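Supplementary notes for students who missed Thursday's class. We covered one full example, reproduced here. Read the sequence, then the structure, then the short commentary at the end.
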Amino acid sequence: MNFSKLIFATSLLFVSMAALAQGFEPANDKHHELSISAQGLLGNIIPGAYVYYPVYTTSTLDPLLRYRFHTGKHAFRIGVNASNSKDNTGSTDSTNYANSGSGLNLTIGYEYTFIQQARLQAYVGADAIWGTENTSNTGVDRSQRAYEYSSNTNRIGGRPFVGLRFFLTPAISISTEMSFLIYREKSASKNFRDWTEPQTVDSDRVNTVFTYNSPHILYLDFRF
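Structure (token representation):
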């Protein structure tokens, strides 16, 4: 599905839902809200239902968990996403290997609700973002020589966003966002083979990304 079809389908969904708005009052008097990615939740409950990559990349801007504090049309928000994975030792025709990785990503930001019509709300804002990830690959090649590759990447930046929220009940809603990303990235890697001297490669690069991130992740939001 291309972006234009995705935007049309999302718009049609929320416009249709707005027809249910008459006579409905959301729980705007509740200040706290906890959100969880529906895809991330399903991916942890049903293996293979959704591949959710917790490691911070340009395709995983949205955190798995998010907390908001609402005050009127304003809200302050904090998001987190963490992972720790290790593959079982595998093999190919040439090597035996094991892979592992971990990541931690944090967002903190502000949003303003500029449309507030019963069930349907629209908001804009911006997040500050920080992420770190570590990967490791170790093994033995066909000549029985050991090797190891490891890397560490840190990112910091920000992202403006616009979002839509639809209330299923006064205290439960679904929401989705689209955004752009600007970040600075610094990474270091080490490549070791037992027949050579260890090699360390450091790089410091600046990436400015104006990539449109479609509203493909739905959140379940709970106010209390």
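Commentary. Helices lie at 3-18, 38-45. The first strand starts at residue 32 and ends at 37. If anything here is unclear, bring it to office hours.
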